[in-house]
TrEMBL record:
<dbReference type="GO" id="GO:0016491">
    <property type="term" value="F:oxidoreductase activity"/>
</dbReference>
<dbReference type="GO" id="GO:0000166">
    <property type="term" value="F:nucleotide binding"/>
</dbReference>
<feature type="domain" description="Gfo/Idh/MocA-like oxidoreductase N-terminal">
    <location>
        <begin position="6"/>
        <end position="124"/>
    </location>
</feature>
<dbReference type="InterPro" id="IPR036291">
    <property type="entry name" value="NAD(P)-bd_dom_sf"/>
</dbReference>
<dbReference type="InterPro" id="IPR050984">
    <property type="entry name" value="Gfo/Idh/MocA_domain"/>
</dbReference>
<keyword id="KW-0560">Oxidoreductase</keyword>
<protein>
    <submittedName>
        <fullName>Oxidoreductase</fullName>
    </submittedName>
</protein>
<feature type="domain" description="GFO/IDH/MocA-like oxidoreductase">
    <location>
        <begin position="135"/>
        <end position="253"/>
    </location>
</feature>
<dbReference type="InterPro" id="IPR000683">
    <property type="entry name" value="Gfo/Idh/MocA-like_OxRdtase_N"/>
</dbReference>
<comment type="similarity">
    <text>Belongs to the Gfo/Idh/MocA family.</text>
</comment>
<dbReference type="Pfam" id="PF22725">
    <property type="entry name" value="GFO_IDH_MocA_C3"/>
</dbReference>
<dbReference type="Pfam" id="PF01408">
    <property type="entry name" value="GFO_IDH_MocA"/>
</dbReference>
<dbReference type="InterPro" id="IPR055170">
    <property type="entry name" value="GFO_IDH_MocA-like_dom"/>
</dbReference>
Amino acid sequence: MSERNVRWGVLGCAGIAVRSVIPGIRASRTGEVAAIASRDAAKAKETAEKLGIPKSYGSYEELLADPEIDAVYIPLPNHLHKPWTIRAAQAGKHVLCEKPIALDAAEAEEMALACREAGVVLAEAFMYRYHPRYDRIKDIIRSGEIGDIRGMHGVFSFNNAGDSKNIRYKAEWGGGSVYDVGCYPISAARYLLGREPIAATANALFSPDHGGVDMMASGLVEFGDGLSLTFDCSMWAAGRNTLEVLGTEGRIEVPHAFVHPPGKGGFIVETRAAGRREEPADDVNQYALQADDFAAVMRGEPQRFAPDDAVANMRVVDAVLKSARERVRVEL
């Protein structure tokens, strides 16, 4: 690794990589995209030429063998996260893996162990939490300004049901709305509340026209002492991505909680004592901040969101999916 830049390789030409993560790495202070790989060499070459990436490879193995690559970003379908994370670790590459990090908590633990044994950094790509507004929201909660927290509600939905060949609709590949977007409010609640859930209950619409995956899910995640997250997520509903934190003396509303248009990263605080105010947020690139944080960890700084956090989030995702499939309350 050079003194300044982390040399990134990207395993796959997924839309999230092309549209968001690669531009984010380039906008970061510390990263450069040095190579991209695909199982289709022509596709990799075309993507590299389009984006100005110096090298392209026709296999993931070739990229992992490149000694000039320091870290890899893995945006592959969910069922491929574990094998390619482990192979990357064995090749000595640090790994930023797209969310959800794995198909279940057991896989996530295997990935964390492999990276720990190889001495490389592993992080789950929840870009939203690197935005400074989340630290600000957490500070407001800790200050007591909105009183004791009574609950949280998070939603993340979009409608892509017409795209019948989408990989999100392959159950064996880790498809479904909980994996794709429900993991966000679950992660946010755990982070902002600073504690782990004790149980989960969920109901879901499993669509036979979409590979039997959950196209819509609604859930209750219990944190104990009467405190819960309620959430819904969907790949077959109108688009929303919002978060509300409700306290005894006020509330916090995040209108664009996980992805936000330019200039729309602020949030609202409303209290009984002071009324309503808008908290502006810097117009930052969450993906760039994620890349810079990853680089800092590679250079020895403490990791804010270690692999143990990813394992813990997957335990909740596991419980939510089990509850939806079996129609039972699942204790954690």
